[in-house]
Amino acid sequence: MKRFVHFALVATATVGCDGPAGSAGGDAVARDSAGIHIVEHPADPGLVAPPLTLTDPLFAHGSRPGDHLFDRIVDGAILPDGSIVIADIGASEIVRIAPDGGSPVVLAGSGQGPGEVRFPIGVHALGGDSVLVEDDGNGKFLVLRGRDVAEVISVAGDPQLARGLRAHAMDGSGRLLMTTSSYMSDAGTGWIPGSMVRFDPADRAADTVATFDMAFSRPHDGPRNPFAPFGHVSASSEGFVVGRSDRPELLWRHPDGTPARIVRWNPTRVFPDESDLERVEARLREDLPRMNPGLPASRLEGFIQEQIARLQVVPDEPLPLFVELMDHGDAGVWLRAYEPAGDFFGGGSGYRVVSPDGRSFRSLGFSTPTRVLDVAYGRLLGIFQDDLDVQHAVVYAFEGRP
Is the pTM of this model over 0.85? Predict the structure, then answer.
């Protein structure tokens, strides 16, 4: 039975317009080196970053009478008319919601037919009412125009394209910008490399244009640093953006993989302590029973103790700078704050937004942990989870220029 939940959702009023290069913690220094534009911030721009300001939510869809009940939202996109399209990986559905937050329509249901999806991992706006859906389970890309299937691009014959890569954006020539989506944690030593790939749907050609550090290798059954850094990559139509959560540096690459610009800053570093480890242990005790429902109670406590015993903190390594990196094109690169054992996708309740040219930083905070899915047309699409674990799609408008 569908549950209807009353909730209160507030975004901390924090977003303004871009200022000059020195408006966010000291004068930024810009220079060119070997054709690469480099911007360096000598101070921590996050300390005095000008905030972004949002209106009250235009709507939050998920628990009102008549709302669609989501299972597990993985991605979403804002369309030019203000409607949103949600990829629900749990229910294997693509759902469109009207600009006023009502009239939910399932554009693609669960199945293996031409207009159906199975384990959709992404949805991207293509202009007008057209969207591109990445259907991982069926090994295809699905182009929907309104409720109609406009095109089906099968990649089922290529295991790398079908399951090993994830699309982030489409460049100006209609090629998909994709990156490695999974890895083996015990693959070799040091940093495990991932690939940046440009895929041409017309001739099914996939070219690896660059690599990035994806994750640090560790033995499968060995000790685990709960605060270990990760590599992150995203893309917009202009190209890729790469970062590592242990480095205050972002690297932009053109669609062909050549470096375009680098932004560096000087953050205030925070080191883990016992209270951080205690939070991780408490989170494991909360999550492991839910993730292993078939494990007998007689074995559950031993399993939890085993996982806790594997935790090994490296005290002289600072906490990661961010937990997620998303490139929203003209709206900048969004870095979600890291929070040890954070709720809802492992992140905190705030974002740091780096302008496309890297010369200004801004901040945005939510009182309810919210993950931002898309920023476009003066709106922000996010998802949050209430105290009954019901997921909601929420849309805000920006006050001023985002």
Answer: yes
